[in-house]
Specification:
The complex is a heterodimer. By secondary structure, chain A is α+β, with helices and mostly antiparallel strands. Chain A has 20 helices and 11 strands. In chain A, the strands form 2 sheets. In chain A, strands 3, 4, 5, 6, 7 and 8 form a 6-stranded antiparallel sheet that branches. Chain A has a 4-stranded antiparallel sheet with strand order 2-11-10-9, covered by helices on one side. The N and C termini of chain A lie far apart (58 Å). Chain B folds into 2 domains: 34 residues; 102 residues, OB fold (Dihydrolipoamide Acetyltransferase, E2P). Classes of the chains: A alpha+beta, B alpha+beta.
Amino acid sequence: MIPELGHVALIIAFMLASGLAVLPMWGSARRDVAMMNLAPTLAVGVMLFVALAFAFLATSFLQDDFTVAVVAANSNSLLPPIFKFSALWGNHEGSLLLWVLILSGWMTAVAFFSRGLPLVMVARVLSVMGMIAVGFLAFSLLTSNPFERLLPTTPLDGNDLNPLLQDPGLIIHPPLLYMGYVGLSVPFAFAIAALIGGRLDASWARWSRPWTNVAWGFLSLGIMLGSWWAYYELGWGGWWFWDPVENASFMPWLMGTALVHSLAVTEKRGVFRSWTVLLAIFAFSLSLLGTFLVRSGVLTSVHAFASDPERGLFILIFLALVVGASLLLYALRAPAVASRVSYGPVSRESLLMINNLVFTVAATVVLLGTLFPLVMDAFSLGKYSVGPPYFNAVFVPLMALVTPFMTVAPLSRWREDSAARWLHELVVPAIGVGVIAAASSFMGQQGFNIWIGLAVLLAGWVSLGVVKDFLRRVKGKGQGPFRWRALSPSFIGMSLAHLGFAAVVLGAVVVTQENQERDLRMAVGDSEELGGYRFELKRLGQLAGPNYVAEQAVFEVSRAGELLAVLVPEKRRYLASGQVMTEAAIDASLWRDLYIALGEPIGEGAWAVRLQYKPLVRWLWLGALMIGLGAIVTVFDRRYRAQAQTRSMIEHGVVGLAS
Amino acid sequence: MHPARKQRLMLVSLVVVLSSAAIGLVAFALRDNINLFYPPADVVAGKAPIDRSIRLGGMVVEGSIERSDTDLDTTFWVTDYEASVAVRYSGILPDLFAEGEGVVVEGMLDKGGALNATQVLAKHDENYMPPEVAAALEGKSGPVQTPQSL
């Protein structure tokens, strides 16, 4: 009964979404207030019914209802309850339902927080989001019904959740990632609504900007969690693989990065308007492309659930419709909204334009590398794979190119600035950073390393900009804690994100350069020195978990004779599927991780063991966390709160000069 | 020059410089860093190059895995039921690597026709078959039992 109720709820949600896609948009064309007023109600309605469907499916999972196909395929009665719940999105059908749930959540948020906006804008934005919801609800209902029953051949027990996914990281990684992925539909909807209305001014950018920042922030957090999960759960200590599915979420992030910065210029100065709109369209299109890549089964990846060409085709058609229609609309309307404000070649606008170009190019080269094998295969030109060396070779120089400008841009002036002023302000601290960088290139365990010096130079340079900006803002604002109030959430958020970026750069380069790794054969009593630490295998043991049995190896890690940690890596065998999994043991700290993973038993009580010393690896995730939180902090800025009260009709261009 | 025109000129030249740099980088990076996939039959037929890295995929032949007693060296055979190629690898093998299962290995062929693998990729999920392997095995079956997922 419960799955059928869920199915009905999903169908009702589909009908409400169809109403939302059509009625308010039609109303906006006919200036029909009553019809436009339907938009928030319908949006909330869609959310409620999708949430209901989601709750019914969750109930089926928690009650071990193996008559439901997805439950039987992805859950098991022995699974701990929390994993039964997260198993809901550990599969294609359920994760699609989560996708729609989050989309409807964003719609509801827009309905609630946009009361100060002109009605016609709200109606159009929600209507565009309704169209997206229609597409995905149809996808769910037509090709991937999560409520399908397995009757009469009901299995006695479920197939179990893939052990890789039985992990706390997976409980939160997909929801956070989807928050970001799907959240990009909000700036997209704002862009489309503005194109339809022909009004792309500073106030449009001001409405769209907080949504973009939050979505992008969640995307950053989601990507960070994915990387962290891969690090400890895939078992081998890598943190980024340039796997096509990672790229699928990374491309919208790169485009989103450009969008976040371009929106800042549009809001403050009224320029880059058509470009900003285009970026919003691209960012969401890349989200959809990512969904297609992940869901169609064209990829070899942990995320590629059982493939079904029909599903791939559905998303491909939907993607073509969305991209085609929005680009067509853009082509028809964009010239009408071109800007008339000018700026000098040396100005903050120009610096932000460099950011935009670099990040767009970065997204494009990642896209090229990701699609190249698919295109070659589609035209039967051979089965290629494009590996990490390609991505590193194109991506790293681009990031190195953009980083120096991150210091200057926040310190520079809008409209017109001078390079001489920058030089005057930055030359002395720059020399200081240079000296520290030169010194730090000798600090690694393996002697001189130029790359570490460069990374410290770049990271230090970015931090320098943040510190300078901070000092400039608190100067003359009195003493004590009061002067902190002079800092706006926008500034705090931006600084946090930029410092986070510096931390990611430093962490990525140091762990890549100074990583020490050894695969070896170890038996009880053997010991090995690595990175200044001594690893000794003390004993082997067994353990019975709730739904698995494990072989354990107990290692003592010591340094200069002093015992630091006891690490217990495991090799687990899951009972339901018989699948074997490596559970690494990690001694984590801010400055280094020690990582032990068991390979396989290789006779006479010996194991293949991988030992790793990974300096500064935590900085990667810490930095990404700062980027994500920084982006989210910016929405608490007073000027976004003000928009809820006043129906601002600000003229373009002049607005930002005051702030 | 008119400021708006100056701006446009600057933008255009920046775009040109950046995109040519990017194209250069992409071309350079693609030249060395793409691997072509070959099924064992093509390797045995001599269609695969021996001076560069390739990918080979198929099933691990039952009973073919041999491990060294002293270190992590392993050899095994990969087959598409038409032909088989020997693979040498030193290191830790992935969890789902097993006899009779699908595998993709990356590495260089030696003159004797064996592959020195730098990387061994197995599936992430017991029911999942890498598409390349599935395609290479399509329509073929052999003495080795094929998994249900095919």
